[in-house]
Design brief:
single chain, alpha+beta, Cyclic Phosphodiesterase, Chain: A, five-stranded antiparallel β-sheet, four-stranded antiparallel β-sheet, 38% strand, globular, EC 3.1.4.58, 2',3'-cyclic-nucleotide 3'-phosphodiesterase activity
Length: 184
């Protein structure tokens, strides 16, 4: 099973995500994500043997407890790209308020998952919601123009849980199913 750990945006922000994606709709080479599946990934675990689920759940429960983060407000705002404006592979909207709490959760999850054998991340954590992936440079200038425009504020939401999610890839896009929820 293909697994990741996330904070999901509420359904109420799906329209705001779609609105921010609208100017990017016809960008050559850009594949937009489904706004209804918008989330902040805290850790991508990859393909995992189903028998490891209890071990992962224990590690995540410990991480959430150790992070000592209670429910908090988060703001989704601003646009950015990975890895750089010269070479764009991911277009994203960022997190303003709530960054410190998400970072504490990420650090605890990273510590506990690497302790049970998952590879550590090879980049700094930037809390974000992926809007789309650019497969080639044809749409680079269009993405640059949209990202440089006035940064949008999509809205605020209350974060009350972290979710272990199974992602099943299909021709119509990924399908997500919750494995376990961990309350803050």
């Amino acid at each position: 099973m293909r697994l990741f750990v996330s904070i999901d945006l509420p359904d109420a922000l799906a329209d705001a995500v779609a609105e921010v994606q609208a100017p990017l709709q016809d960008t050559p080479g850009l594949t937009l994500v489904d706004p209804e599946k918008a989330h902040v990934t805290l850790k991508f675990l990859g393909d995992v043997d189903e028998r490891r689920i209890p071990e992962i759940e224990d590690a995540l429960e410990t991480a959430v407890d150790d992070a000592d983060v209670g429910p908090f407000e988060a703001e989704v705002a601003g646009l950015g790209v990975f890895p750089s404006m010269d070479y764009i592979s991911v277009v994203w909207v960022g997190v303003g308020d709530g960054t410190a709490e998400m970072t504490r959760l990420y650090e605890a999850i990273e510590r506990e998952t690497t302790a049970i054998g998952f590879d550590p991340e090879d980049h700094d954590f930037t809390p974000h919601v992926t809007l789309g992936r650019l497969k080639d440079a044809r749409g680079k200038e269009m993405v640059q123009r949209v990202v440089r425009d006035d940064p949008p504020t999509l809205g605020r939401f209350r974060v009350e849980q972290v979710r272990l999610t199974e992602s099943t890839l299909s021709s119509s896009g990924p399908k997500y199913e919750t494995v376990t929820r961990f309350g803050l």
